[in-house]
Amino acid sequence: MSRNDPFARNIDWLTLALYIGCVLMGWFNVYAAVYSPEAKTSIFDLSTNAGKQLMWIGTSIILIICVLVIDHRFYDQFAYIFYGFMIFMLLLVMVAGSNINGSRSWFKFGSFSLQPAEFAKLATSLALARYLDVPGVNLTKQKDQLYVAGIIGLPAILILLSNETGSTLVFAAFIIMLYREGLPAIYPLSGITLATLFVLALIFPLTYIFIGIAVLAVAVIFILPRYNRNLRSILGIGLISLAMMGVVAGVDFFVNDVLQTHQQNRIKVLVNPNIDPLGVGWNVTQAKIAIGSGRFEGKGFLEGTQTKFDFVPEQSTDFIFCTIGEEHGFVGSTIVVLLFVGLLSRLVILAEKQRSRFARVYGYCVAGVFFFHFMVNIGMTIGLMPVIGIPLPFFSYGGSSLWSFTLFLFIFLKLDSRRTSMLSRN
Amino acid sequence: MFENRRYIVIGAFCLVGLIYIARLFYIQVLDDSYSLGSSKNSVKRVIEIPYRGQVYDRNGKLIVYNTPVYDLYVTPKQMKVPDTLAFCRMMNITRQEFDSLINQATTYSPFKPSLFLRQLSKEDFARIQDALVDYRGFEPRMSSMRTYPAHTLANALGYVSEITKKQLDEQATFYYRQGDYIGHNGLEEQYEEELRGKRGVRFVMQNVRGVVKGSYKNGEFDTVAVAGQNLYTGIDLDVQQYADSLMANKVGSVIAIEPATGEILVSVSAPTYDPNMLSSRFFSKNYGKLLKNPYKPLVNRPVMASYRPGSTFKLIQALVAQQQGSLFPNTAYSHAGSPMRCHCHGVRNLSGAVQYSCNPYFYHVFRKMLYFNGDPNTFKASAIGLQQWYDAVKLFGIGQKLGIDLPTEYGGKLPSVEFYDKVYKGQYRWKFSNIYSLSIGEGELLISPLKLANVAAIIANRGYYIPPHYAKGVGKVGSGIDATYYEKRQVNIDPKYFGPVIEGMRGAVVHGTVTPLANIADVELCGKTGTSQNAKMGHKYDHSIFVGFAPINNPKIAIAVFVENAGWGGKAAASVAALVVERYLKRKTEALKLDESVKAQNYMLNVGVIGAKPAQKKKLDSLRKDTTRKAVVKKPLMTNTAPAKPASRTAAAGVNGN
Fold first, then answer.
1. Number of neighbouring beta carbons within 10 Å of residue B658
2. DSSP characters for B621-634?
């Protein structure tokens, strides 16, 4: 693809470069994760994850070409059809999928398998963009909020039913796009507040939190401007505080009685990583040891001991960041974090430049989903997030995830590439 | 309308990025506990224990070597035993043992391998190896086991077993860890540092299941194990084994020294045990059995037993008196004036007195010695005389430690002036008439067989000895042993005084106190019999003692033989000594008749005619005890302990074979 190529001419080269950087680093680290000093396998060995990842990268290039060749209107026009097809696939996989690790969410074709849930984010994003593209749709209106909730909720519930909690949670990432598109700030705020209360409820005794909330409520009332300090606002604050206390009290019940044991454990380990380091806390402890032992400069490429010797589970997929942390140290880890922050910011900036709301909404969906993956995946390896099995985009080994993230990103780049031509034509 | 929210979104991205970078900085740069956790995780210290040095005899024959064996380890968490009973049958253990072993291992750690069974022989391992595939969680590791192909010398060698708690706590250099092997008693303990070598430490990387994945940093921190050095002893294995066979069914010692070098040629402690018993995995069972055995097979009698030397002490008396000038070769004493009885007749000169072991003669010799200083006060004269006597006798090593290369050696007893002052509660309260039993080696004298053999070496050398020792060399012959083992120690007796004594010793064998059969042709044995009083102490029989050397000129071997409860010294002890000397000098046994009669003698039956309890009490009361027997039994519990016997060898093989 040269710059004179009509399809490539308007590609955002910075994003493409960031993409290539991520994919290549990911590939090398997958190799490092599966490399064994005794066997000294080649990075091209197709029997290892590294060789397979190369194959996935190769096929991704074909996908990219396809995405760029197809007319941009295709994504717009076929958004609901994609969505409908995806819902069908999600239903199908529950019936016909293979059972891997207790979740029936994979289609198996011979030796390789596909996970429709990975592509559900993409279809949902397109559907959301399509819906919000309709003039007059306003996210402050309850009707539209309900529709949007429906579009997001349907696949999310189907994925939850196939026991893929991690992939379900990813759908929360659309809140970023919705916030940008005018959803009242109260929604993300209350979401964050809920999450904070959730964590607090796990760490501190209930009474402390109750006292804290009460003190906070009184303080807020006093800070309120005099003209606002009427019975109504005081009552409102009181009600909110009571609701918060209710949430805190509910969390205890929720964690101990609603969640499944392994989910409970993941949350407990997040709060106290030192409980049972050989059992429940194993993943987190070992992941932190691997990353922490990298020190400033890292142990060097292929020199890691923790990740290679299987101390860290899933080291080429969900815990790929441990390999980076161990072998490339603080320097390497920071570069990866900055790479992601750069890519995400670039996506937001590009999205803002879009003329069509469809493209902008879609761009924000991409940024939001990538952000969620980035935050949760790296967060869990450094002990800031509970262990949720979702991949690190472009880094983690796996065909489904690499393909879906690549499609996800390049559909946006395709839409973006039309921006300038639209300008020149219209 | 909501364009500005983009800044909040980008701000949120950057905030999360910053928080993560800060967190990474904390766990990667500031906090080094993770780094330590990593090396603890994946780098394992592997201790490499080198092969212990082997032990050779003077002719290069192997006495001790190492057999590769397998220790079986179990990891309880990984263990899968589908059929416990079949497994137990295969391992030759009971269900209870299996349960307790697994229990122990689980208590130690369910995830780490712990020792399940020790020292499976190669044959056993081959047998179970295939079947082991069906039982997951069991892992064999190479190890080694001390093996004694000659089945002899157990008491001098000591044994190798797990380090005791006490040794572990008291070690000076923190070399040993729990479960390490260490030499106990005997040469294994004495030359522990040389034999054990130096263990190496290898750092290897392991994966989460403990599977080794290669060396850490290319072995930068590894230390190489240094193999143990071989120990070359002066033991003559063939003669040793022969002496063992002669001492079967007897209690006592045979110890022979090469006079010119002080090297110990033969060191028999009877009854003994097969040293292989204490190297197998049945150590504790066998050790307990040996410990309870009333004949105390674990005691190394040549150095740890003390006896009154009896008539053999007359040799020293004769030499010391001549050097003092109170006795001449032609001095003659009659039986008159002596309170002692004698089995000989008539008046004799010195060599005759030695030949026939005349008690009254040596009564007079000792009397003359004590009063030789001429002090009119007999009490004072006795004290001065005894001091002179004490100083002279001390040089023979009596009442001293000779400094043999064994961890335990008893000094024995040589009564001094102070000793009698204490016994009689004051100076000059005793005189010759109180202590005359010393003149014939009775009384308060106690010596070990080794010391007596050394006396024989002194006489054979005509005036000096080299401290007796087992080692000829560590690493190679002639190196690595203590300088004292090359030192000639003079006894300050003029060589000319040895002539009449040696003449008497030769006479004793040719036509004297020694049984005629023991005078074997072409051996030229010179010797002196002794009968250590024991019968008077409440036992039925005396101890039979013989000390001697051969040939008469340029002697090659000095020997002392003790046979407990065998009565008169001229028969049992002298016969054993004559046969051992013949075997050493001729490399074969021609005195078959004597050989046969000695092997047929069983003096074990003589041991212990009185009840165990009173005997022990009496022993404690008595100064004149022998320390070898701690308990006395009515009938022999162990009739065959000689390792050279085929029967016991089969038994030993049976023990090892399991």
1. 15
2. H-SS--SS-S---S
3-state secondary structure at position B340: coil
Yes or no, beta carbons of A293 and B39 under 8 Å apart: yes
| Angle between helices A13-34 and A399-425 in degrees, nearest 10 | 170
Residue of B nearest to A288 (CA): B34
CA distance A286 to A197: 28
Three-state secondary structure call for residue A135: coil
Which uninterrupted H or E stretch holds B457? helix B449-461
State whether residue A291 sits within 8 Å of chain B by CB.
yes
Residue with tokens 């909020």: A145
Chain A residue with Cα closest to B16: A375
Q: Which residue of B has its CA nearest to A185?
A: B5
Interchain pair B17, A341: CB under 8 A:
yes
Question: Do B121 and B69 touch, CB atoms closer than 8 A?
Answer: yes
A382/B10 Cβ within 8 A? no
Task: Please indicate if any CB of chain A lies within 8 Å of the CB of B215.
Answer: no
> How far is Cα B395 from Cα B412, in angstroms, rounded to an integer?
14
Per the CB < 8 A criterion, the answer to whether A183 and A146 are in contact is no
Which residues from A are below 8 Å from B212, CB to CB? none
Closest CB from B10, B24, B32 relative to A345:
B10
Q: Tens of pLDDT along chain A (426 residues)?
A: 444 455 556 788 899 999 999 999 999 988 888 777 666 777 777 777 888 889 999 999 999 999 988 888 888 889 999 999 999 988 888 887 776 666 667 777 766 677 888 889 999 999 999 999 888 888 888 888 899 999 999 999 998 888 777 888 899 899 999 998 888 888 888 888 888 887 777 777 778 888 888 898 888 888 877 777 778 888 888 888 888 888 888 887 777 777 777 777 767 766 665 665 555 566 777 788 888 888 888 777 877 776 666 666 677 788 889 888 888 889 999 999 999 999 999 999 999 988 888 999 999 999 999 999 999 999 888 888 877 788 899 998 888 889 999 999 999 998 888 776 654 443
CB contact set of A351 (below 8 Å; sequence gap of 6+): A359, A360, A362, A363, A364, A366, A367, A412
What residue in B sits closest to A290 (Cα-Cα)?
Answer: B38
Angle between helices A320-353 and A357-381 (to 10 degrees): 160
Measured in angstroms, the CA of B36 and the nearest CA of chain A are apart by: 7
B559, B285, B304: which is closest to B411 by C-alpha?
A: B304
> Taking CB atoms and an 8 Å limit, are A38 and B214 in contact across chains?
yes
Backbone torsions φ then ψ of B561, nearest 5 degrees:
-125, 130
Burial class from Cβ neighbours inside 10 Å (0-12, 13-18, 19+) for residue A101 reads: exposed
Please tell me which of the candidates A278, A294, A349 has its beta carbon nearest to residue B28.
Answer: A294
